Amino acid sequence: MRKGYSQEIRAEAIARRYQGKDWKGIQALIQEKYGVRPGIRQMQKWFEVYKGSADDPTGAKFIAKQIEETANLVKPVVQAKMMVEVMPLWSQLQEQYRMTVADAGWIAFLAFFESQMGRESFDRIVDEYRELRDRLGKRPGQQSQPK
């Protein structure tokens, strides 16, 4: 019998159980997809560990852990992509438009996000932010001034 199973196999078992699949069906699916057959008791243990406590019965801890691990894997790629797209614009804004380093950086940063989201989505989010900020009477995160 195998000593350990990959996170991918464990995640498959847990996700299928949350979808309401029975353990024998999950076992068969994993065997077909990955070529291994984990025991039902083993899969039940995985499920219990990642299910969380009574305060967190949705498995949110497991999902958060998987998201964090995935984000850490792609982080260098995203950082490189951002640098390749942001840095040239940042320099151009400083040189051609005589902007401060900070202003050019923010504009280049915002331009990067707009390029990822698309102009309409970006404009919609910026408009929603402004509306919310105005309704609250202060910027989100800004501390109240003593009166």
How does the SSE layout of this entry go?
Blueprint: H1 7-18, H2 23-34, H3 40-51, H4 60-97, H5 101-117, H6 119-136
Helix pairs in contact: 1-2, 1-3, 4-5, 5-6
Characterize this entry briefly.
The chain is an all-alpha fold and 147 residues long.
Gross morphology is elongated
- Indicate the proportion of strand residues: under 5%
Total of helices: 6
Listing every helix as H and every strand as E from the N terminus to the C terminus, the arrangement reads HHHHHH
Number of strands: 0
Secondary-structure class: mainly alpha
> Any low-confidence stretches, pLDDT <50, length ≥5?
none
Between the first and last Cα atoms, what is the distance in angstroms?
A: 70 Å
Q: Count up the domains.
A: 2
The radius of gyration over CA amounts to 24 Å
- Average predicted confidence as pLDDT: 83
Main β-sheet, in a few words?
A: none
Describe the structure.
The protein is mainly alpha-helical and 147 residues long. The chain has two domains: 45 residues; 63 residues. It contains six helices and no strands. α5 crosses α6. The longest helix has 38 residues. The model has no long low-confidence stretch (mean pLDDT 83).
